[in-house]
Structure formats: C-alpha cells, structure tokens
Amino acid sequence: MAQQAALIYSLTPSRTFHKPYLLSSSPRFVRISAVQSDIKSLPQRNSLSHNVTQLKELTLPSYESEDTTTGIDVDAVTEAELKENGYRSTRRTKIVCTIGPATCEAGMLEAMAVAGMNVARINMCHGNHEWHRAVIKRVRRLNEEKGLAVAVMMDTEGSEIHMGDLGDGVVSEKAEEGEIWTFSVRACGSERPERTISVSYDGFAEDVRLGDELVVDGGMARFEVVEKIGPDVKCQCTDPGLLLPRANLTLWRNGSLVQERNAMLPTISSKDWRDIDFGIAEGVDFIAVSFVRSAEVIHQLKSYINSRYYNKDVAVIAKIESVDSLGNLEEIIKAADGAMVARGDLGAQIPLDKVPSVQNTVVQLCRQLNKPVIVASQLLESMIEYPTPTRAEVSDVSEAVRQQADALMLSGESAMGQYPQKALSVLRNVSLRIERWWREDNDHGTINLPHIATSSSDRISEEICNSAAMMANKLEADALFVYTKAGEMASLLSRCRPDCPIFAFTPSTSARRRLNLQWGLIPFCLNFSDDMESNLNRTFSLLKSRGIIETGDLIVVVSDMFQSIQVIKVP
Ligand SMILES: Nc1ncnc2c1ncn2[C@@H]1O[C@H](COP(=O)(O)OP(=O)(O)OP(=O)(O)O)[C@@H](O)[C@H]1O
Ligand SMILES: CC(=O)C(=O)O
Ligand SMILES: [K+]
Ligand SMILES: [Mg+2]
Questions:
Q1: For residue 439, what is the enclosing H or E element?
Q2: How close is the Cα of 172 to the center of ligand 1, in Å?
C-alpha cells in the first residue's frame, strides 16, 4: 500500500559523545564509581551544528507488533528522530493537533503523526459522534499498524454562548460595518434568513440590553445591540469581520463582561456528559473540559470516571478560558491531571493584553504542581490561509517553548487550514531551535520547584527525580531512563526539564500514550520485572540492536520499584 510521505528535517548528526563515566548498577544505593576526569574530551555543545542540512522523505513501514514480554515497542517516527538527530536534539515540546476536515482522513493522520503530532484533539463543538468515532478509530489503527503512540484528546463543548451553524456548506460569512444582523434564540434550521444567526443560549434575548456590545470570537467582529423584538436581537456591525460556524459570543456592557444568568449554566452540560460517555467508550486518553470555573467540576468528573469507568485510564485536562477560573487557578490545576491555556476564549473574557501574563502564570503553576500544560490557540493563525507564518507568530511560539510548556496546540491551522503539515513543521522547527538555544544559554537559572508529595514514599521519589535530573545535567548524560508503571516518576523527571531526553519505559500502552503529552518524555512500551539488572540489560540490548543507543552512552536510571539512582555507561 502506498504510504503517505512527509518531510522530516534532519539536523546534522551529533551523537559522537565519548562518555568518561562508568558506574555500577546496584539497586537501592546511589553508587557512583570510577568517574574519570577527561571532561575536556566532551564535544562543546555549541559545536553541534545548527544547520538544517537535509530534507528527507520518510515513509512509515508497516509495523510488526512486538511481543512486549520480550520486545520493546518503539515507533518508526521516534526511532528515526533519535537516530537522525541524536538524543540531545530530539524535540522536547509536544504537539497537539486539532483534527478537522483538513486532517481527518487516514493518510493525512499518518502524515501528521510522521511529522510530529503527539496528540490528536477532537472538538465536540463540531461534527457528530459518527465523525468523531471514525477519527478515533483511524488514530487507533495507525497506532496499532505503525507502532505509534498518538494519544486522543476529546474537548467538550461546554455551555458558553455561541452562534449556531451557518447551514450546509457555508464555512463563513462576512459582516460589514453598518449592516444590521439578527441574533435569535430561535433555531434557524436549513432556511436561515439572510443576515440571521442563531444563538445557543435561551436566555440571550432576555439578558441583552440596548447599547450592549456583542463580541464574536473575542473580537473577530463586533456588533452593538440596537433593537429587541421577542426572540430576535437586532445588532449593528461596528467592527467588520468573519463569522465562523459556532463562533463564541460574549456580551460587554460599560467595558465589563456581562454574565447574567449564563453564569449559572453548568460547566459540563447534558450534551457534554453524553459526549464524555461516548469518548470514554471509544477509548480517548484525555478529556479537556471547556470553561472550567472552579475545581469542583473537575472533582465531579474525576469521581464520575472513577466510579463508572474504574478500569479506564482517562486523564482530565482543565481548560483555562473562563474569567472565573482565574481566581481559582491553583485548586483547579491541583484537581486536574493537566491544564490548557485556551487563549481563544480567554481573550474574549479578559482584556487581550492580560492574556500573556495569564499564560505565563498557568505554565509556571503547572510546572510547580507537576501537571502537563498546553498552550493553545492562534499560534500560527495566519497559516490557515498562508504557507508561511508571520514573524510575530513565530515569536509567540518561541515564547511558549521558552516558557517550557509541555505542549503547543494547533487549532484551525490543522483542523481546516490549507497547510496543516507546514504549520506542524513550523512548530517542530521553532521548538527544536529554541530548546537548543535555551540549553546552550547557561544563564537560565534554576526554577524553584516546591515539594509536592504528601506521603514520605512520594517525597523520596520526588527527591530521587530532582537529584537524577541534576546529576544528568552535571554529567552531561545522554539520556535519563525511567521504569514506571503508571508514569508518575516519568512526570517528576519531566518536571525538572533536564538537558537530556527522558526515555520512559512502561508496560501500559495507555500510560505510554498519556506520557506522550509531557515535555521531554520519549515513552516506550516494555514489560519489565522487579529485577532491575535484567531490565537494564534487556533494554540496552534491545535498544542497541535497533541502533537507538550505543556502547559508551551515559545513562542515568531511576525506577518506580527501587528508590535509587543508577548511572551507567552502556556496555
Ligand atoms: N470536527 C470539525 N469539523 C468541522 N470543522 C472543524 C472541526 N473541528 C474544528 N473545526 C474548524 O476549525 C476551527 C478551529 O477549531 P477549534 O476546535 O480549535 O476551535 P476553537 O474555537 O479554538 O476551540 P473551542 O471551540 O474549544 O474554543 C473551528 O472554528 C472550525 O471551523
Ligand atoms: C482551545 C480553546 O478552547 C480556546 O482557545 O478557546
Ligand atoms: K471545545
Ligand atoms: Mg474555547
């Protein structure tokens, strides 16, 4: 079968380290021995070439599923990246792509996975269950057939106010200055009168007042309310712009966001609960909850999942996009398994100039609380239409990478844009470049990570990970290895944002997919025993036989089972 081809940008080979350390691998003790002092023989980091030297076409071979009792599950994409670029040059920042009409076919999904998509996001605001089920199935098949670990994230609709669909085949409408448009709580159906938009919230006509400002999609277009006639609200366009199907609507009065009765709408609507049941049944890995206002709803969803689907491994991501969430950030993030800075709606609820500081706050808070964080929306908005990004967009992406967010997200760029693969490769290349720059810039200081563990055993794990990451940096190790059943130790290592990549070995395919969202983690599926000596020997020979590691590589190892750090030179 013809495989989709995609472009992989190869950086010059850099794996020529000669590591001068030799370590014994005794579990339970941190035992460093025979440390030699020929550190000068290490290559200068800045001697690693920055040049993008070759463009290579990569097709994914069909994947023979490994017997994980003996083998190791690693996919062709990771393998190629590790071999081509060397460990130090692998991308640490993960990429979430929203799947829509532009990317939902199997070939495109594969091309996106080859080009670096770590997580596929489906937005329940659009499409129906049949459409979403087909996408999830295609991703799952891709994972099975090609040995990939692309996770699926389902994003709930939430019950904020938005416009209805524009009708069959209508992808957008332009509102011009001065035009009068009708926003109505009546469903318009297929015979939508000209310049009429349906509104999702029944209380809309009652809540608005003459003179209110109606803002579409955080400022894509603006209207002033000029007349109310029963269910219809006549509005005059004051700022022309594009109206997209199901665009978000906010009302402003005297410079403040109006939250009349819509503030009482549930964060998780009855449709959302049905979508959540659907998503869990279809095996999604993450549920991203829109418009979270407080920690309560996260607790509610998590206990629902635990009681109803106790054997399912579903992580809950709190989307930070509601003005009300900002006073409860810490509790919300603590309650959730991760967070998303959903800048689209956030920018419609708070002044735009406040969005960057909220982004920074959420990213840093997540890092401190050890929760993965995604920076989302409009990263490369212009690439929906154009093949190159603006300089400002590239700067915005680099800022998120410099903040060391776990993941960046594409929205319309990958869902319905004309250049989804190009947008993905911009995220990849900017990430690689900025990560390298960040590592080479020795002046980034150390971020103070507070203790997060509550039990003494967790506290030990935390300290082990902090120390292992620090050792790996000081020894300029080639990689950190972590053997982890549920992924906790892997997260703790990722939280330290070490200089080298983290190979996370887990026996669980769902844990492997979940870890794919986290900064710097390269998750592998591997069945391991309680005998670390034999786990290591097996891992070394498996990875060596595939050319991923080589004799002499310096590895720092931690595991769930033994509270120890081992430093080993690959035999
Ligand atoms: N499943 C889909 N079917 C059709 N179009 C889609 C689909 N998913 C996304 N799109 C299109 O891509 C655009 C961007 O999608 P995205 O899901 O990122 O919206 P968003 O507004 O950023 O997210 P949210 O609705 O969660 O605030 C949408 O406005 C829509 O036009
Ligand atoms: C992603 C999303 O929901 C937003 O930016 O609004
Ligand atoms: K959504
Ligand atoms: Mg949103």
A1: helix 420-440
A2: 13
Ligand nearest to the CA of 412: 1
Count, in order, helices (H) and strands (E) of the chain. Answer: 16, 26
What 3-state class would DSSP assign to 555?
Answer: strand
| Per-residue pLDDT at 416 exceeds 60 | yes
Q: What pLDDT does residue 443 have? A: 65
Q: Please choose, from the candidates 487, 480, 483, 454, the residue with its C-alpha nearest in 3D space to the C-alpha of residue 466.
A: 480
* Ligand 1: lining residues by beta carbon, under 6 Å: 98, 100-101, 123, 125-127, 155, 244, 290, 344-345, 377, 411-412, 415-416
Question: Helix (H, G, I), strand (E, B), or coil: what is residue 463?
Answer: helix
Residue of the CA atom closest to atom 3 of ligand 2: 342
CA gap 441, 430 in Å, rounded: 16
Alpha carbon of 44 to ligand 3 centroid (Å): 46
Give the highest mean pLDDT range of 247-251, 353-357, 542-546.
353-357
Q: From 119, 320, 345, give the residue whose CB has the most ligand 2 atoms within 8 Å, as the site to mutate.
A: 345
State pLDDT tens for residues 134-174.
999 999 999 999 889 999 999 999 888 889 888 877 888 99
Q: Which residue's CA is minimally distant from atom 19 of ligand 1?
A: 411
Give the Cα separation of 361 and 434 in Å (integer). Answer: 20
Nearest-atom index, ligand 1, CA of 121: 17
Residue 272 Cα to ligand 3 middle (Å): 10
- Tell me what percent of the residues of the chain surpass a pLDDT of 90: 67
Q: pLDDT grade, residue 48 (50/70/90)? A: very low
Average pLDDT estimate for 84-105: 91
What are the φ and ψ backbone dihedral angles of 183, each rounded to 5 degrees?
Answer: -105, 120
Tell which atom from ligand 2 comes closest to the C-alpha of 348. Answer: 6
Tell me the pLDDT of the chain averaged across its residues.
85
User: Which residues, 6+ apart, have CB-to-CB distance to 408 below 8 Å?
Assistant: 93, 94, 95, 96, 374, 375, 376, 379, 397, 400, 401, 427, 431
Q: What is the ipTM of this complex?
A: 0.98
Closest approach atom of ligand 2 to CA 155? 3
Residue in this structure with the two tokens 């015979």, named with its chain if needed: 191
DSSP per position, 145-163:
HH----EEEEE---SS-BB
Contacts of 237 (CB under 8 A, 6+ apart): 175, 176, 177, 178, 179, 180, 181, 221, 222, 223
